[in-house]
Design a protein that fits this description.
The chain is α/β, with parallel strands linked by helices and 432 residues long. It is built from 12 helices and 21 strands. Strands 4, 14, 15, 16, 17, 18, 19, 20 and 21 form a 9-stranded mixed sheet that branches. The structure holds ligand LLP.
Length: 432
């Protein structure tokens, strides 16, 4: 479900013609729909309404202040993975008491900062980390709230680079060891065993691995609750979205085709998991990223050249792998549509960026309308792990971001001035 659709032959984000944003702000350009963010959050929130729950948006998926503010205003907490993310969330008005701190490599400085701010929980990934948090808490004369992350050894059946819940991964503590770890942690005086955490992977398109993992850990969570007085169980994030959604005109049709293709809806997710979770009597936390932000954003790019070789029709665009790395990194599929809808025959095309690497592509052999130099294309479902994974590779500026709300829009990140890219660099003294 989202609010990018054609009105006549023009692509709109909610009530705003994307072309008008391109005219004003140029390309490449990330555009986010506030209504889509809001509705996705609310859909999940409603689906979980039979449970005492808190949604902690995984801000690693999209950490623009305007996106965080949108979700914070709806009551969302945040799943953070660094001091930077905590500071950024707080800058957007987030309450640290609604933030959970994840990640396998929290530094001493990060733990101290998060403890002082009063995060809701540290989601701990190893015993040395438990010891470190306890030591820092003792020094600060504080009690640190912690949850230990279990690795349930369940195959999430997703891309190898984003699966996290098997013993091949660096994440969490093995299912068989976790009870003993809680027993040892209970002896550490400056820890409060507040919860239990699990996250098995990202972009899961079936409810089955979630259900399998929850069923597997339930008896364990029950025992840990009885023994240590746990308050919450975080079931992580990972809800997959539909990436190959052909764009119809009008959001109603969109939604029909989304529903037809969608394998994992919040309603299905909740229908299968809530009956298992409810009897626990624990507060349920969830850490969705992509489900909320993924389909809420697009990346708009302009065609610089059309290059026909004997074999291929290359559309060389002004966005590149440094702006959206998912196709290069995960062979991820993003739907590509023109800003001006065109009839006629489709041509098998490769959409590629200007960077000097063969991996710099957005699509290969994709049937696309006949488009030419100066036309613009939108890469859909780019709201999650898009801008946040951007880099300055090839000394390319980070692109601008715009938020749309109905007929209103605002630039929520200015295009980076090119000089800023090397502003922190210096010539070594012996080179002067
Ligand atoms: N909780 C934890 C502990 C996580 O590690 C993650 C994502 C999430 C929640 C949110 O997962 P989501 O609901 O967004 O699937 N860059 C990759 C995805 C990496 C996911 C990392 N962890 C991509 O572009 O597909």
């Amino acid at each position: 479900m989202h609010y990018f659709h054609y009105v006549g032959d023009k692509l709109y984000c909610e009530g705003v013609a994307v072309e008008s944003l391109v005219k004003k702000y140029g390309t490449p350009l990330y555009i986010y729909s506030q209504r889509t963010l809001t509705e996705h959050f609310q859909k999940l929130d409603r689906a979980l309404s039979s449970l005492d729950h808190l949604i902690c948006f995984a801000m690693k998926s999209n950490s623009n202040q305007a996106v965080l503010r949108t979700l914070g205003n709806l009551g969302s907490g945040f799943d953070i993975v660094s001091e930077g993310e905590l500071r950024r969330a707080m800058a957007a008005g987030a309450d640290p008491g609604k933030c959970v701190f994840a990640g396998v490599g929290k530094t001493e400085g990060e733990i101290e900062f998060a403890l002082k701010q009063g995060v809701y929980s540290f989601n701990v990934e190893s015993e040395p980390e438990l010891a470190r948090i306890n030591r820092i808490a003792a020094r600060l004369k504080k009690i640190a709230p912690v949850a230990v992350r279990v690795n349930p050894n369940v195959d999430a059946k997703t891309h190898a680079k984003i699966t996290t819940g098997t013993y091949e991964n660096k994440f969490g503590i093995a299912f068989e060891e976790i009870e003993a770890v809680y027993a040892r942690a209970a002896k550490l005086k400056n820890l409060r065993l507040r919860g239990f955490q699990m996250h098995i992977g990202s972009q899961l398109t079936s409810v089955q691995p979630f259900e399998q993992a929850v069923r597997k850990v339930l008896p364990l969570v029950q025992r840990l609750k009885a023994k240590h007085g746990l308050e919450f169980f975080s079931i992580g994030g990972g809800l997959g979205i539909v990436y190959d959604l052909a764009l119809e005109s009008g959001s109603a049709e969109w939604w029909q085709s989304a529903k037809a293709k969608s394998i994992l809806t919040p309603a299905l997710y909740a229908a299968r998991l809530a009956p298992l979770l409810k009897p626990l009597g624990l507060r349920i936390l969830m850490e969705p990223g992509r489900f909320i932000s993924g389909n809420a954003g697009i990346l708009v790019t302009r065609i610089e050249y059309v290059k026909r070789t004997g074999k291929k029709n290359f559309l060389i665009v002004d966005a590149a792998m440094n702006d959206l790395i998912r196709p290069a990194f995960y062979e991820a599929y993003h739907e590509i549509v023109p800003l001006r809808r065109k009839g006629g025959q489709l041509i098998s095309s490769d959409v590629v960026g200007p960077i000097c690497e063969s991996g710099d592509f957005f699509a290969k052999d994709r049937p696309l309308p006949r488009v030419g130099e100066g036309d613009c294309l939108a890469l859909l479902s780019a709201g999650a792990y898009g801008f946040v994974m951007a880099s300055n590779y090839n000394t390319r500026s980070l692109v601008a971001e715009v938020l749309v709300n109905g007929k209103k829009y605002a630039i929520v990140r200015e295009r980076q001035p090119v000089k800023e890219i090397w502003a922190g660099e210096k010539i070594a003294p012996w080179q002067k």
